Each structure stands twice: as C-alpha cells, then as structure tokens.
Amino acid sequence: MQRIRRFFLFCSGAHIPMLERAPVETNKYAGIGGTIFFTGLLAALSGGYALWTVFSQWWAAILFGLIWGLMIFNLDRYIVSSMKKRERFWDEFKMALPRLVLAVIIAMVISKPLELKIFDKEIQAELVIMEQKTFKIQEDKVKERYQARLNELNASIDKAKKEVITQGARRDTLMLFAQQEADGTGGSRIRNLGPIYKAKKTDADNAARAYDTLSARNQQLIATYQSEIDRTDSTIKATIQELKRGALDGFASRMDALGHLTDSSAPIRYASWFIILLFIAIETAPVFVKLISPRGPYDELLEQHEYAFIMLKKEKKAKLTLETDERITIATAQSEKRVQEVTE
Fold this sequence. Notes:
Distance between the termini: 85 Å
Radius of gyration: 46 Å
Number of strands: 0
Helix content: over 70%
C-alpha cells in the first residue's frame, strides 16, 4: 500500500522528501497523482485503439499507446507540478488558465477514440449505409458516362417507332376512305367501284407498300439500336463489377459515421457530449484541485525552499560582485603605483 501511495505521490510531481515533512498533505497529492496516472492510462488505451483502427497491427497499437499515454502522463504531471499556490486566487487562476485550455484540448483528443469504441455497433451499422451510398455514387458515375449515348439510342428507337405508327395510321386512313367510297358511306356517297374508288384504292395500296417498306427498314434500325443498347448495358455492368469496393473501416470513416449518428440521433449526441465532458472533468481535475485547495504546509515549505535558493543565488552574486570590485581596486592601485615609480 505504501508503494502504491509513493507511486501516486511521484505521479503528482511533488517533491517527496519535502512532502514527507508535511504528512497531512500526502493524501491530497496522492489523489492528484492517481488522477494523473489514470488519465495517462486512458490516453494510452485511446491512442492504442485509434492506431489499431488505422493499421490493424497489435504491436504498433501497443507501442503507440504506451508512447501516447506516457506523453500525456508527463504533460499532466508537468502542468500540475508547475503550479504554485500563492496568496491570491485570481493570480493563480490567470496562471492556470492556459493549462486548463490545454487540458480541455487533451481531453477532447483522448475521448474520441474511446467514443468510437463505445458506439462501435452503431458505427458499424452506419458504415454499411455509408458503403451503400458510396457504391451507389460510383455506379451512378459509371452510368452517367454512357447515359448520353443511351439516351440518343432510345430517342432514335422512339423516332423509328413513331414513323412506323404514323405511316400505319396513314395507311389505315386511306384504306378506310377507299372502303367508304366503295360502300357509299363516305366520299361521293355513291356505292360503286368507279374511278374515284380506284384512285383512293391506289393511294391506300401505295401507303400500305410504303408502310411495309418503312416498317421493315425501321425494325432493322430498331434491332441495331437495341443491340448497341444491350452491349452498352453489358459494358456498364462489367465496369461496375470491376470497381474496387473496399470496406469503409478506417479511422476517418468511423469518425464520419459517428458524426452522422450524432447529427441524426439526439440520445447519441447527448451521450457523446457527456463522454467528452467526463474526460474534460478528469483531465482538469488535478488543476482544479490545485486551484481550490487551501495553501498548506507543503506549499509553505516549497516557498521557503525556493526563497532560500533565491537568497543563496543573490548572496553568491553579491559575493562575486564584491570580489570582482576588490580585484579591480587592487589592480588599479598596483597600476597607479607602477606609473608613479616609472615617473620618479
């Protein structure tokens, strides 16, 4: 138990021999050290998982997680140990404000990979939807490349069919006119097969022959156009099958999926914010503890030690100044003596 407490005291950045002279402060600094240690541990897990999602290499994830966790641990330890308790709270707060901002940034960075792990099932489902949308966009781009030619071919087919229909309607109309002339229900209203009927019958026969010729020719054109459409469709299908459809499983894709989930689902958005706020609270806890805790014996001892060091430094500087002035005075006197002797 003592080893664990001593380890947490080391994590807090406190000077242990001096802290032992103020034992009432050990629990406070042990708590601060524990918070710093577990923040570094969470950062290691977060960084390792983030690298695992990128490279899928366990050894790289462990190595990067350890380096990232040690870096965050060392940074938090430096932030807390560099804060000194003074007599005025607002002066302390102004000095701690940059450290609080840095702690908030660190908390937001280390919270994101853990959010990805917490919402892993929801993200996997969203990734499937994103993959389908991506594939659909790729297919649409392939189809768009050939769509102009397909539209042209379909328009040609429609035009050929309309020509046949128009000619067939003209043939039927002329045949109807000839029939009505023959039975007296139309035209001259005289029932006979006279010259008027023959002229109309000739027109109808010519229209029928023209219809047969046009129909045969357009049917051949339609078959040609349809054959080209089929070949184009086959080309489109083959091109779509050749597309590389890798699974969206990278870190950026997961972040994008998490963004979609938070935008579309209020509970997930609130949960995401709660996780971020939790990590901000954990990361800034040592700084706030240092700010709100009263000035204790350890702070007094530390200030006395710093003051003694400053005074010792000033004393050495003053002694050095006096010694230097003395040497200059002696050297000046000796020089003046030599000049006098030379003059005499």
